[in-house]
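User: Fold this, then the next.

Assistant: Folding the first:
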Amino acid sequence: MAEIVNMPKMTDTMEEGVIASWLVKEGDQVQAGDVLAEVETDKATMELESYFDGTVLAINVPAGETAQINQAICVIGEKGEKFSLDSEPEAPKQEAPKEEPVETIEQPSAPSVDVASIPAKIVSMPLMSDTMTEGVIATWLKKIGDEVNSGDPIAEVETDKATMELESFEEGVLLYQAAKAGEAVTVNEIVAIVGEAGTDFQPLLSAKPQAQPEPEVAEETTPEKDQPAPAPKEVSAPSKSNGRVFATPLAKKLAKEKGFEISNISGSGPNGRVTKSDVESFTGAPVATGSTTTISPTLTGQESYSDEPVSQMRKTIARRLADSKFSAPHFYLTMAINMDKAMESRKAINDTEEGKISFNDLVIKAAAMALRKHPNVNSSWLEDKIRRYDHIHIGVAVAVDEGLLVPVIRFADQKNLFAISEEVKDLAGRAKEKKLQPSDWEGNTFTISNLGMFGIDEFTAIINPPDACILAIGGISESPKLVDGQLVNTHIMKVTMSCDHRVVDGATGAAFLNTFKDYLENPVLMLA
């Protein structure tokens, strides 16, 4: 009987996997335990083994494509065997109940009104920025009954980027205002109506606007050598009304900055309106004035970008940290630690032949021993209960090309500095080569993120679930200090602990940090 191989859940946070490569092809014979494919999960590239003997009858997900958890990715069975990937039977069709006829009474239709004959026009909310969806009427510059000339600003509109003037392209009297100052109007909705005094404009409000026909797009053709080049597109001359030039507020501002007379610039906008792009492309000379005007050269360039597919690791990092940030109420505790004795101790240890340790190794050991004295920090929030861990497993954030991996130092409080150092080096190396296994990154009870080696003085980190806290380690820097009346240099390291307030209170976190500080300022206590 043919067996369907589904995408397994290879990590605790995995939701989908990418088939990095198939190690078999259709028609190959496989045995239980043979590796079928390499699968890129959110944390590593892992081998997918077969649990069945037989022939590979079909490969359902090609290399490079993504499969959800439990999705069928291949079929194994006897050679020539027929199979089906359909696992759910089609639900039986139910006959819709017969509906009794309902007697309807036709209402007389309202007489149609020819809105084109009404001597009034609608002023709609224009799209004033590329991301605008609505505009707020900041203030009305005209009131109902005021005369309006084409090009007059009738209101100031607050968009998502700036407060801009809304100009009317119609002439007449302001008959109607659709919103009060402070209210929002959606793009393309009615803002006002301008027309002849005394006009009944109500039919314009009740009439549904007719959809504008889409502009015809000419088919793109390749010109022959003998064909003449197409004539350049005409640009309308500056549109004026009573000596006023129609131009957007941004175009007016830009023209003024460049020293251009706005009336000399041809407009490409509606009704010859001058736009920002018209000013930027204008090649005329600036207007001479009594004072010297410095004109900045117009810089041009080509905009470009590239899209990069989001890796499985980055997807999971984004999802988990967003869940943590917006579900766990974070608060932060920062402390400065004198590292003079830690630096002396590290140098003394590294001068021996037993091995080399880093400041990060000292931090891990100090945190592990402090957690032993403050078990409430070594905890997790599980919605209906708080779990206090008796064991201490410290996750150590490691930067890789696609984000962060957090391999775990297990029973860190029971290991000496040399053991911690060797384990960190091994896990970090395998993390960067994407050779970690689930047992290497699961089970953390507390996490440390160290950016001090990258020149960062201090920072805050997002809690790594399911931990209640994460400790952010900054760099070590020199700082002057007054000792017995003498100014001496000391070495200070700032640390910030992010805490889940559902589990850890301020006093609890502060007590832990003070113990952590004692260990680093007196490293001999960690060697006892």
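Now the next one, as you asked:
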Amino acid sequence: MTTIHLLDDRPAVTLAGEELRRCLAEMTGREIELRHADDYTGEPGVWLGGAQSLADAAPLPEVRDAAWDDAFRIRSDGPALLIAGVNARSVLMGAYEYLRGLGAEWLWPGEDGELLPELAEIPLEGFDLTWTAPNRHRGVCIEGAPSLEHVLDMVEWMPRVGYNSYFLQFQVASYFWRLWYEHRLNPEWDDARELSEEECEELDRRVIEAVKKRDLILHQVGHGWTAAALNLPTNGWVTYDGPIPEEDRELLAEVNGERALWGDIPINTELCYSNPEARRRLIDTVVQWAREHPEVDALHFWLSDAPNNHCECAACRELSPADWYARLANELSPRIARIAPDMKIVLLAYHDLLWPPEEVELDLSAGNLISMFAPITRCYAHSLADEACDSGEALERPERNQMEMPRHNRQLVDLWRIWGWEDPDNAFCFDYHFMWPWMGDRLSIHLAPLMPRDIADYAELGMSGLMNCGAQRAFYPTAWPYWETARVLCGRAPARSDREAWFRMAYGDVWEVALGFLDGFAEAAGAPRHGAEWWMQLEPEAVPQLRAHLDEYRGLLNEAASDARSERHRYALSLLVHYHELMGLYVAINEHHAAGRTAETIAAIEAAEQFVRRTEAQTARALDAFTLLRYLAGLRERLG
């Protein structure tokens, strides 16, 4: 009997032992014992522990901050296999990496994404692998319309492939939960229901529990602080038409001579930052929330989620928006350091705040500030630092509330460079590949080659990683881009052999059919063009090529799906069959639109919407139907 020895009782280390026992038992059919131990003795079996418990037998590399940086060692010591980590999640990641070395893999979230090959025995000798994460920040942010099960599956999957942090937006993520549970864009869904705020808080609690069980870094909040300071709704882009006391109205930003909610949306509204009471209310609100939520590792302190809405009163005009933001951060940073010494504050370079402060210098002395670059209007036809993506226009600091968001990467990158952030470990990119571009990319085909270039660009620009702001269900038509992103963030250089190996695991003996279909479709459709809508990407000559390609693969895909031997292969191939049909509708939309047939174009869009609704139960774990349906509805309305 093989024994797994736990030298640590932290939840993530215990989970590492439980996962090893589960997986090894399934792979070998043998009974595996899980046992706690006080000290390492060299007895046969697997030993799991932190830096101190295995310091002599499996010394670890030095890291700057063991709470934030990840490193593990997998080393054989005679008949004993040691898995040591600089923190508890690194031990867990080390356990998964050991299993990966035995042929296991986790291709996408959920039970059928797990591959556990059969083994005759459990190899413990001959291992010596040391890994240090090249990127400190490897995260996923809640977006789209997820259920609790979708998010829990994501959180479970993340350390298996190397992600180390999860971000729940807003004080409560009720906006996103309600998009799924209310199912407003699919009346055919028969399980729709409304959620109370208490139910949303419970969903958040369940997610946080799962995050902490794995020792993942917990990020929270972001937008909403300006609304919270005035006791207005904070949890999403919701309108508010209730009363605002006159003493509170004086704290709102004055824009165009009026102090009012920006577009009636509280979280999109700025405050009058020259007003000491407004600053006090805002900072006190953040500090109180931080005091009540000590479990948070990274507290995002953002202003409103709208551009060109900063206060225009004479006193506020004395400083730029970013100068006021820096002043607020300087007031907040030492107060958070006093009540929560281990909590970081994440600042946001975004919208008007892409332009850095001119007069107020950020005070970094507390050591708790992180800078986050969010190039929301960037181009995904080019990598972030591709100098070819250049408008040719020189950057000029705009007048107050006259910001025009750059739509070329060269200008956005230049703004980040002007910020001059000098601590790469405490900087990362908040990017949107899996939020919108997956639709503009014919649903993720071209993202795969883009992601490694972008991740390399982040490093070149002085950032240590990525927070994926995207739908929790962006694994359609294939999960390869999301999986690849995790492995590249972990330092795995992408190779054609890796892609082929992944497709073999996902699709079985017909992997070449799957790869040929996706690659052929991508080649016929052409790469995304700068600034183009997804339905306008196609050149006219591409339409007959795509129709021929779809015709060629219709029978091949249907046959492959019907002959699939495992649940994993059957599921992955069913998504390709679904994608094949959806892309037929996509080609029809483009064909009608190019010919100027507006009525037929709208009818084709409606057919796509009906197809997505009708088949949502089949694709729900991989495809965020709400996000796609919202996009299609907006497209139809613009044409109509």
